[in-house]
Design goal:
The chain has helices spanning 27-40, 68-76, 82-96, and strands at 4-11, 17-24, 52-58, 61-67. The chain is α+β, with helices and mostly antiparallel strands and 98 residues long. It has one domain (4-96). A hairpin with a 5-residue loop joins strand 1 (4-11) and strand 2 (17-24). Helix 1 (27-40) runs parallel beside helix 3 (82-96) and helix 2 (68-76) packs across helix 3 (82-96). The radius of gyration is 13 Å and the shape is globular. It starts with a strand and ends with a helix.
Length: 98
């Protein structure tokens, strides 16, 4: 799957929406990349495990919702896509700080 430009956002406990723009090949990669952006931003609070992320694909416009717990479950799976999948998940775990 080719990389797509996405905006990934979440709403904090004060009702403020935080958005990061990333280029990713999958929904999980988009959330992991956005987590890295949010963690590096001193203005955004740290998402909790129940945080829901809205992933909007910019071209063509598509929107998906993924909870942080879903990302964590996918990152911890070991039987998908063989060794290449394991390496990709390890890279995304490190990137997301999980």
């Amino acid at each position: 799957m080719p990389a797509s430009r996405c905006s990934v956002s979440f709403t904090d406990s004060d009702g403020l929406v935080h958005t990061a723009h990333v280029e990713a090949e999958s929904l999980y990669e988009a959330v992991a990349l956005a987590l890295s952006e949010f963690r590096g931003d001193g203005l955004a609070p740290q998402p909790a495990s129940a945080t829901e992320f809205v992933v909007a694909i910019e071209k063509p416009p598509v929107e998906h919702r993924i909870r942080l717990t879903q990302l964590q479950k996918w990152l911890n799976s070991t039987a998908r896509n063989g060794p290449a999948g394991v390496l990709k998940r390890e890279k995304l775990k490190e990137l997301a700080g999980l």
